[in-house]
Automatic annotation (TrEMBL):
It catalyses: L-histidyl-[protein] + phosphoenolpyruvate = N(pros)-phospho-L-histidyl-[protein] + pyruvate. It is found in: Cytoplasm. The gene is ptsP. InterPro entries: PEP-util_enz_mobile_dom, PEP-utilizing_PTS_enzyme, PEP_util_AS, PEP_util_C, PEP_util_CS, Phosphohistidine_dom_sf, PTS_EI, PTS_EI-like. One of its GO terms (molecular function) is phosphoenolpyruvate-protein phosphotransferase activity. The keyword Metal-binding applies. This is Phosphoenolpyruvate-protein phosphotransferase. Its cofactor is Mg(2+). It comes from Nannocystis bainbridge. Residues 56-83 form a coiled coil. Residues 272-559 form the PEP-utilising enzyme C-terminal domain. Residues 172-244 form the PEP-utilising enzyme mobile domain. Residues 27-146 form the Phosphotransferase system enzyme I N-terminal domain. Keywords: Coiled coil, Cytoplasm, Kinase, Magnesium, Metal-binding, Phosphotransferase system, Sugar transport, Transferase, Transport.
């Protein structure tokens, strides 16, 4: 749409809308950018499921009806997938099809049909609700977002069972799609419709719909409370996915402002995407390896497309979710082999399973803990569940013959615990050698530094491992005694707290003294406000969610080491987190205003 036509269209909308009804509603920026357009509202009601018992002679036909519905839904996704170019969006849709083939989901549903004589709809919703209950108790956002994926897929299966057909989204070009929730297939359809943006009432940055929106470069704000009550079809909406908000029925002045911001944003986006494959080398020659944090293999294409030099954190615990049986050694091997081959020649760092009461799985008997963040989790749990641990380690070691693989142990508290973890790796290696199974003998082994104890004794770790990785999400939580999931104290979660900065410096210096690289894989790595501080403190590598990589790499290529070190030294001398925040924000905003608009968490640090 040209500028004249766009202005005329918006003028027409203003004649129809009472600008006095303007509303501004906060959400979370899931896919960066600015979108402006009339609302296309999608209001789907939950499918009503009848609970009925069937006659025993109908069991097999009822099971076949279930499989027919699953096949129909997989085919619907296949039609959408076939219309898309190759890329990470196709991989996500493929993952959705795999969910609809999940043997655990299907077998449990079939069991209820056979044993309880439940109709297929009733059996399917019962099993789904059981899975959703487990996912809903997880502290990890990524796990909870998988519940949203499952809910949407099962709604489609139920519609197929009932002979209903969900309305296919077909928004006009230039519109903003508004819905309570959207599936990845819905999001994929928007690519060909050329929508201006999307807004949902639920979801987070790690939902598959959000990942799809980022890969298709559609501005998106999610988690907007009561969005369907606030927006009527045809309302003009600004999707401010820089700051994480929407403006319903904006003023003409606001429209002009955001049109200019959108154009500026797109120009900057095109610039950094052209350079995404360049290495992150500073003006004076400092090479910073920038890697990706991923949890499922379909995110790997997104990471590589955004210029990741490998994977700095592969969250292997997601293989243990939503199933009745433990993943086998063979499954660990096949998963790691696939990721390594896809990522070659870059290294993939696999974190051993970081499970516990905060990341629940029905595969383990876990006691209810009053403080799960400090309870039986991560390496502590792995050492207790030794057979399960050794199975995963054997799978990883076998996969190591297919590419550069590294193993990282989470939440290591001291050298005794580290020693036990290293012994387990050696035991797994000996088991494979005794059985005559091919495996990698020479792999890097590292630890996550996530507690004050680990940070303060990093010197002892650095002399025993090949790399250190600082997990700032937990390090901040444990150091400042802040539950990062508790909104009442979330304001105290301060990455620039003097204690956090000193601990990061301590770890970086311990690594340098022992010639061991130190990476950082927490949320701080993805925030452009902190790039200079982290590198100035001596962090050598950064690992982050894929969409943040181009912005961070561009900052590094535009910087000098002396400037980064100077800012870090200034920040270390201040007395409070608020003062440090002000200093860092002022410095980075002066040098990288567009980078901050693109990359700060939910728009923090923007204009």
């Amino acid at each position: 749409m040209n500028d004249g036509a766009e202005s005329a269209a918006f003028s027409g909308l203003f004649r129809q809308v009472d600008v006095g009804l303007r509303r501004e509603i906060d959400g979370a920026a899931a896919s960066p950018g600015v979108g402006i357009g009339p609302a296309y509202v999608v209001d789907r009601r939950r499918v009503h499921v009848l609970h009925t018992h069937i006659d025993r002679d109908r069991v097999e036909s009822e099971i076949e009806r279930l499989h027919e519905a699953l096949r129909a839904c997989r085919q619907q996704i296949e039609v959408v997938k076939s219309k898309l170019p190759h890329g990470e969006h196709r991989q996500i849709l493929k993952a959705q099809q795999m969910i609809l083939r999940d043997p655990d989901l299907i077998q449990r549903t079939e069991t209820l049909i056979r044993e309880d004589l439940a109709n297929a709809e009733w059996a399917l919703t019962t099993v789904t609700d059981q899975i959703l209950e487990v996912l809903g108790h997880a502290d990890d956002n990524y796990i909870r977002e998988r519940g949203s994926d499952l809910t949407y897929l099962i709604e489609n299966v139920l519609q197929a069972l009932l002979g209903e057909h969900g309305d296919e989204i077909d928004p006009p070009a230039g519109s903003v799609v508004v819905a309570q929730d959207l599936s990845p297939a819905d999001t994929a359809r928007m690519h060909r419709c050329q929508v201006a943006g999307l807004v949902t009432g639920v979801g987070g940055k790690t939902s598959h719909s959000a990942i799809m929106a980022r890969s298709l470069q559609i501005p998106a704000v999610v988690g907007v409370d009561d969005v369907l009550a606030a927006v009527d079809a045809g309302d003009l909406i600004v999707v401010d996915a820089v700051r994480g908000r929407i403006i319903v029925r904006p003023t003409p002045e606001e429209v002009a402002h955001f049109q200019a911001e959108r154009d500026r944003h797109l120009a900057f986006e095109q610039k950094i995407r052209k350079e995404h494959a360049f290495p992150a080398v500073s003006i004076d020659g400092l090479h910073v390896r920038v890697r990706a944090n991923i949890a499922i293999s379909e995110e790997l294409d997104l990471a590589l497309r955004h210029g990741a030099e490998g994977v700095g954190l592969y969250r292997s615990e997601y293989m243990f979710m939503n199933r009745d049986t433990l993943p086998s050694e063979e499954e660990h091997y096949r998963m790691a082999k696939h990721v390594l081959r896809r990522c070659a020649p870059y290294t993939v760092v696999f974190r051993t399973f970081d499970l516990g009461a905060d990341k629940p799985t029905k595969l383990l008997e876990m006691e209810d803990e009053r403080n799960p963040a400090m309870g039986m989790r991560s390496l502590r749990l792995a050492l207790r569940e030794r057979d399960m641990f050794l199975s995963q380690l054997r799978g990883f070691l076998r996969a190591g013959v297919h590419g550069p693989l590294a193993i990282m142990l989470p939440l290591v508290g001291g050298v005794d615990e580290l020693g036990a973890g290293l012994d387990a790796i050696e035991e797994a290696r000996d088991q494979l050698a005794t059985a005559g199974v091919a495996h990698a003998d020479d792999i890097d082994i590292g630890v996550m530094i996530e507690t004050p104890a680990a940070a303060l004794t990093a010197e002892h770790f650095a002399s025993r491992v090949d790399f250190l990785s600082i997990g700032t999400n937990d390090l901040i939580q444990y150091t400042l005694a802040i539950d990062r999931e508790n909104e009442a104290v979330s304001y105290l979660y301060q990455p620039m707290h003097p204690a956090i900065l000193r601990l990061i410096k301590e770890v970086a210096e311990a690594g340098a003294r022992n010639n061991v690289p130190v990476s950082l894989c927490g949320e701080m790595a993805a925030d452009p406000r902190y790039t200079w501080v982290l590198l100035g403190l001596g962090v050598a590598e950064l690992s982050m969610h894929p969409s943040a990589i181009p912005v961070i790499k561009h900052i590094i290529r535009s910087s000098k080491t002396d400037d980064m070190k100077a800012l870090a030294q200034r920040v270390l001398k201040v007395d409070s987190a608020s003062e440090a925040d002000e200093l860092v924000l002022a410095t980075m905003r002066a040098r990288f205003p567009e980078h901050l608009r693109h990359g700060c968490s939910e728009g923090e640090g923007g204009p």
